[in-house]
Specification:
Shape: globular
Oligomer: single chain
Strand content: under 5%
Radius of gyration: 18 Å
Structural class: mainly alpha
Helix content: over 70%
Number of helices: 7
């Protein structure tokens, strides 16, 4: 009974992290609503989850807003640019999938390859933004190289994100409230492991 009320009890630790992910998901949604702030809010999300994933406890809300303010200006072009490219590729995928013949197939596969490269890069882009203070060109180059070099882990991160949102959409709708924070947390667990060789770990 005494152990039940111990704050280090695994059950309470798990519940605490669950609440943190719920709060982070809500903050991300609210602060991404203006659209132009989506880059800063995503970087702030990863700033906190990278710490949570390494069991570095802190003030979740305060840390989120601190990272949000730090990444607001550089996050605007990266966020809008990433969103615009994603929408453009999504529209191309839809359009070329409707074209019959060999040209349609060639164009569709070309866009599929570009979309894969885009997703692989974005998976690393905003976590790197949360960790590194450098210009957007270096961030993009680092994100792309890391995604290729760690292809297996990159694929796992993309698949895990798809699975979490699929569970929320098709199996258990309430799960969506932590899907954003949960995805970032899983990615952060993997990234903290990978980044030790780049001296980017906490």
């Amino acid at each position: 009974m005494k152990n039940l009320f111990n704050v280090e009890n695994p059950v309470w630790v798990f519940m605490g992290k669950l609440v943190d992910l719920l709060v982070l998901s809500g903050l991300w949604v609210i602060l991404s609503l203006p659209v132009v702030t989506i880059g800063a809010s995503t970087a702030a999300l990863y700033y906190v989850t990278l710490k949570l994933a390494s069991n570095e406890e802190g003030y979740t809300v305060r840390s989120f807003f601190h990272a949000f303010k730090e990444n607001l200006i550089p996050g605007i072009p990266l966020g809008i640019g990433s969103l615009a490219v994603g929408v453009f590729l999504g529209c191309d995928l839809y359009m070329y999938s409707k074209i019959d013949g060999k040209i349609g197939i060639v164009l569709l596969w070309a866009v599929i390859i570009l979309t894969a490269a885009y997703l692989m890069t974005v998976v690393y882009l905003f976590p790197l933004m949360a960790r590194c203070k450098t210009d957007w060109k270096h961030l993009l180059a680092m994100a792309f190289v890391m995604s290729i070099k760690n292809f297996g882990w990159t694929l796992l991160m993309i698949v895990s994100a798809v699975c979490l949102f699929a569970i929320g959409l098709f199996v258990m709708a309430p799960f969506l409230v932590i899907a954003i924070g949960g995805t970032a947390y899983i990615h952060s667990k993997i990234l903290n492991l990978l980044w030790k060789e780049y001296n980017l770990g906490l």
